[in-house]
Amino acid sequence: xxxxxxxxxxxxxxxxxxxxxxxxxxxxxxxxxxxxxxxxxxxxxxxxxxxxxxxxxxxxxxxxxxxxxxxxxxxxxxxxxxxxxxxxxxxxxxxxxxxxxxxxxxxxxxxxxxxxxxxxxxxxxxxxxxxxxxxxxxxxxxxxxxxxxxxxxxxxxxxxxxxxxxxxxxxxxxxxxxxxxxxxxxxxxxxxxxxxxxxxxxxxxxxxxxxxxxxxxxxxxxxxxxxxxxxxxxxxxxxxxxxxxxxxxxxxxxxxxxxxxxxxxxxxxxxxxxxxxxxxxxxxxxxxxxxxxxxxxxxxxxxxxxxxxxxxxxxxxxxxxxxxxxxxxxxxxxxxx
Length: 337
Prior knowledge:
By secondary structure, this protein is α/β, with parallel strands linked by helices. The protein is 44% helix and 19% strand. It folds into two domains: 6-118 and 303-319, 2-Layer Sandwich (Nucleotidyltransferase, domain 5), CATH 3.30.420; 126-298, Nucleotidyltransferase, domain 5. The radius of gyration is 20 Å and the shape is globular.
């Protein structure tokens, strides 16, 4: 019997320090240390994020190994997020991963963060059948991705300016909600009327997105309403959140529907931090039922940034012999190769 291949995966692209152990494609542990320090600043402070990663990475890896029930000598591959992300945060993860691998004399695998979000669908059953369309939605990215195989992916379209997650957070800030505001918009939207207020949908070609206009529209709308009624936001918070969320979801699913219809694909999923949004999950399931799609949505723990998705991507790259050189450097932006 062949010895199982244990992969230690490190994710440090933004403000979550995560480590996971993957054994032959199975997740043995998946630990995440969040950083609360950014809340009072209303957003992630890059320098503080990288410093927190330096403090968290050793204890997080130690607990991940213990929960997996293995020793560090059992690790045969070390994987890490190469890009995209905050360069300081990426450097911490990359340098730790390379040093750890060198100490154990094992190879490394560099992983693209967005590709890993897509492959989070393959951590557990049910798994999509190729070809598969994935809408990846996060704080920094919004993409429609055609997946022909685990490692053969094509970005059909993406945002031309801001990402959907960033739009959620900026609108939340306009409403006076604390950071991170996106989940709070989702929370209040569940109690509101999504048709109470109407916001314009941008005209974008093909499968491209734009969210900057929506943010501007909401800003001017709130400024106008508050001149009439200073308590407008407080009195209409649920309905505002529901209306904005409805607009963002419509923008997202319109493009996904267009791509699925054009390519005649009925295997469809969502990934990324915003895929944890309850309104988006519900709307996708409803659209899937109407269109006859097989819809896939990862567990909440695999939607937000986590090392398990880095590990599962490394698993498939390992099977194809896609190792990285120790000289490989992290990058804020990078290819999916």
